[in-house]
Design brief:
191 residues, 4-stranded mixed sheet, 60s Ribosomal Protein L30, Chain: A, alpha+beta, 45% helix
Length: 191
């Protein structure tokens, strides 16, 4: 009898905990989608429905993440370009926009000053286009960021490039706000 009661208690606890995390995850996803829509509305350029990335760089889309915070306080300070770990791209492009050059430069300077540190550059695309095309585009985006870093003295051995294409979206959705968030290169330091 005690084992059955214990089993029932554990099952109830598991269901209760899993329900909470699903609600929190859904709330976070909805908030991200709402933020994406707000950015799209605020930064529309009118050119083929694409929005300007300067709106993303100057607003809530700073790419500030906790992924690299283990490296030091400068990676958590929203005023420091090292805290930004996402580079956004225009539709069907691997050209780095001027607003993101200071971010790439800061990470390159950090890597040059810390030659044992390694960085993974993940290239991503939105869901439009074939899977093969999106893998190639994600690769071009990662290579564009890597090329800028190498020009500043970052060694090949410090960089790992991966393209996920459309397979790991930052935001789920089939609207321009979601597409903007998914056209990116992520900078992730290795522990």
């Amino acid at each position: 009898m005690k084992i059955n009661n214990l089993l029932v208690f554990l099952l109830v606890a598991i269901f209760a905990l899993s329900g909470c995390s699903e609600d929190e995850a859904t709330d976070g996803l909805n908030a991200g989608q709402n933020a994406a829509s707000g950015i799209n509305d605020a930064s529309t350029s009118g050119l083929n429905g694409a929005s300007t990335l300067s709106g993303m760089a100057g607003s809530g889309y700073t790419g500030v993440t906790g992924n690299n915070a283990f490296l030091g306080p400068e990676f958590s300070d929203p005023n420091n370009p090292l805290s930004r770990s996402t580079i956004y791209f225009m539709l069907d492009s691997s050209d780095v926009q001027p607003d993101f050059i200071p971010v790439i430069n800061a990470h390159a300077q950090y890597l040059v000053a810390h030659p044992n540190q390694k960085l993974t550059l993940e290239g991503h695309a939105d869901e439009r286009g074939s899977p093969e095309y999106n893998i190639a585009l994600g690769d071009q985006r990662a290579k564009a960021v890597a090329g800028m870093m190498k020009a500043q003295g970052v060694s090949d051995g410090q960089l790992t490039l991966i393209s996920y294409g459309e397979e790991k979206p930052a935001v789920f959705g089939s609207d321009e706000g979601s597409y903007e968030r998914n056209r990116r290169a992520e900078l992730s330091y290795q522990r």
